[in-house]
Write a structure and sequence with these properties.
about 180 residues, mainly beta, 4-stranded antiparallel beta sheet, about 10% helix
Length: about 180
């Protein structure tokens, strides 16, 4: 073994031993925050949601949030399918005037695999596609921070062709 490997192993062992004993220590009182360290947030800037579903949104961007309630039913005769030539969807267009970020949360009642969400660049292809994880709640949430200025389309796809699913879609855009 080289000396650097031995030194690294010793440091990691010391770190593990030193930090390992603090797993049962509980706070005895609330932390005090000096008044000078409290800062206010400008009302024009909306902080990122408390839940983290992707990379942090770059600082200085202004958010705009839209909540959509809707439903997507079975594929009806004479209607063009939206996904794989057999599933129906609802489409929602939006425009990014400047480069920024997008966060999407889709919730519905029913099976966790009943819905799919897709983010498309208008005329340029798929940017993001997501399903809810197996065994989890019927929710899909993602954030993309690499969104360039152009037209986009969200597609809420019903993956159960014989059932109508009501849903709530929250779209937050940072520009």
């Amino acid at each position: 073994m080289t000396e650097s490997r031995v030194a690294a192993i010793i440091l990691l062992t010391l770190f593990t031993v030193a930090c390992g004993g603090f797993t049962t220590v509980a706070p005895t009182a609330p932390s005090s925050i000096p008044a000078s360290s409290v800062s206010s947030v400008s009302p024009a800037l909306t902080p990122a949601p408390a839940h983290s579903i992707g990379p942090d949104v770059p600082a200085g961007l202004i958010s705009n949030q839209q909540v959509i309630s809707g439903s997507v039913g079975p594929l009806i005769p004479n209607a063009a399918p939206c996904y794989l030539e057999r599933y129906s969807c609802e489409r929602y267009r939006f425009t990014m005037d400047r480069n920024g970020a997008v966060e999407v949360t889709l919730t519905w009642e029913g099976s966790e695999r009943a819905m799919l969400i897709q983010l498309y660049r208008a005329g340029a292809g798929l940017v993001h596609e997501d399903l809810a994880p197996r065994g989890g709640p019927p929710t899909i949430a993602f954030r993309r921070t690499d969104i360039t200025a152009m037209d986009y389309e969200l597609r809420v796809v019903n993956m159960e062709p014989a059932t109508t699913h009501a849903f709530n879609l929250t779209l937050t855009i940072w520009e």
